[in-house]
């Protein structure tokens, strides 16, 4: 008998199904339903509340693009905060950057980290690095309690559901702004421009109220609804589009490079329209 896993109605009326070889793990954590399945197309996949979070085949796109665009815009990204991201993919990328001295991961659900270490070691492999501190608490509370501390803050959140709702709200954005140093950079995954036509302009508005430079960029991720995914940056000082990348340290990446960094900010007209001031 064939087994299929279906993510459905994350976008109302839309479903994405993937054939499953085997369910490797399933549990109800204190925060969400967590599943790891093995699939013929994408290898092992992590689902939270029946929504695809990451998988072995295409995770590099998301994790490189949520990390390296900000890290290479900042001239000296020594101290980096990740909120969410318990699979460890963003952390694995961040510690590739030679200037990073410390990366703090604040994940609300300990079981996401523990299960990723067990079943997704290719993604979670950086979590035990000595530069990395992993804390299990609400990212909203954490940024409220840490001011003027980080060069880069990366919000690698689930969709705006459950504990992640507050990670898309203006109070949280303000706390992140205060948690950054005076030349800091904020970046968050901001969903699909095809299906989040209300959320994306709202995020832009909230970030524009704080940062002199707010920019949206895109990457192509087959397992997220629509395949075309957005990230939004708020920068206190450095512009990701005009930054000189000729001295890019050139550590190994599979998606990110200086040309992709610049090209990711070239937007189709319908996305320009979505974020126009
Ligand atoms: N790449 C994924 C995506 O966009 O589908 C997201 C990665 S997933 C590992 C995001 C993580 O954010 C989850 O593990 C979840 O537990 C965590 N999270 C949600 N709300 C949070 C909060 N308020 N504070 C810290 N972590 C949170």
From TrEMBL:
InterPro entries: PABS, PABS_CS, SAM-dependent_MTases_sf, Spermi_synthase, Spermidine_synt_N, Spermidine_synt_N_sf
Pathway: Amine and polyamine biosynthesis; spermidine biosynthesis; spermidine from putrescine: step 1/1
Chain residues that bind S-methyl-5'-thioadenosine: 32, 107, 138-139, 163
Keyword set, alphabetical order: Polyamine biosynthesis, Spermidine biosynthesis, Transferase
Pfam assignment, any one: Spermine_synth
SUPFAM superfamilies membership: S-adenosyl-L-methionine-dependent methyltransferases
MF (Gene Ontology): spermidine synthase activity
Protein name: Polyamine aminopropyltransferase
Species lineage: Bacteria, Bacillati, Bacillota, Clostridia, Eubacteriales
Gene name, Swiss-Prot/TrEMBL: speE
